[in-house]
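Entry 14. Two folds queued back to back today. First construct below, sequence then structure tokens.
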Amino acid sequence: MVLESAGVAEAFLFARLLFGGVLAFLGLNHLLNAEQMVGYSQAKGIPAAGVLVPASGLLLIGGGLGVAAGVFPVVAAGAIAGFLVIATVTMHDFWAVPEDQKQDEMTHFLKNTALVGGTLVLVALGTAEWPYAVGVGLF
């Protein structure tokens, strides 16, 4: 398999560590700045924001660590993709905000869209053997 080629395995590991680490950090941010994030979520009309913000933080931490370590990577990446699709259209609705907020919301919308693409690549690769992975949950 191409993931086991010289240099590719190491690059894939490095990419997983970066990608998963950033997602886990974003999740940690949900927990450490919960009050601010709950307020922002409530302003966007999210119901039960006080529960959903910490839950999404835990999902991002677990999913990010799963991707980085190669533990249930299809489940981890799939859960992150699902969260990001929902969060992107509900939280970063650049088409529905005042003009002075459009650019920031569009930037976040596009960032999340790119992250969805990355998670879908990982879902697609989930059936392969991931080099340097813990290997739990790999098919």
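Second construct, same run, same settings:
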Amino acid sequence: MRSVLVSGQTMVLREITEADLQPLSAILGDAATMDPYGSDPLTTEQIRQYIADACLASAQEPRERYILAAEGLANAEVIGVSTLELGPYRSAMVGGLVRRDLWRAGNASEGITLTIDFGFRELGLHRIWGCHDSTNPASGHVMAKVGMRYEGTRRDSALVRGQWLDSSTYSVLEHEWPAR
């Protein structure tokens, strides 16, 4: 297993550990944080399973999923989660969550930037993409802010709580990234 550690200006992305249960509960167990993603808050047992899945994914060879804790450098607290799900043709889907009290402070942008940079520089990816549903336009703003391009909208692509939602997709290619 190759452990991941990616440093930025205000945070570091690292492997999730069992010791992260409490700080992850403040993120994944928060209704306001999870609602824009069409998810109910996770229970303690579900968060334990999330951590177990992250640990299992980190040990797989070849590795297909990176579920990383975003830890603030100022206080060594877990402030978010960043994910990279590898797909075919040197592609991956990027995602992330930030603790609600830290929204609109640049944390999501830095987290996604570090994750994309890791994907291109360390994993040799060609295309990284992300999407958000119509109830979460803030995610689209973050993706555009870091240099991802809007590709289009899939209409009625997800049924969430009895409501059909559109999904907007953004991407960035490896040759576009160094030019940022």
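Quick look at the second one. The helical segments are 21-28, 31-34, 44-59, 107-121, 137-145. The first helix runs from residue 21 to 28.
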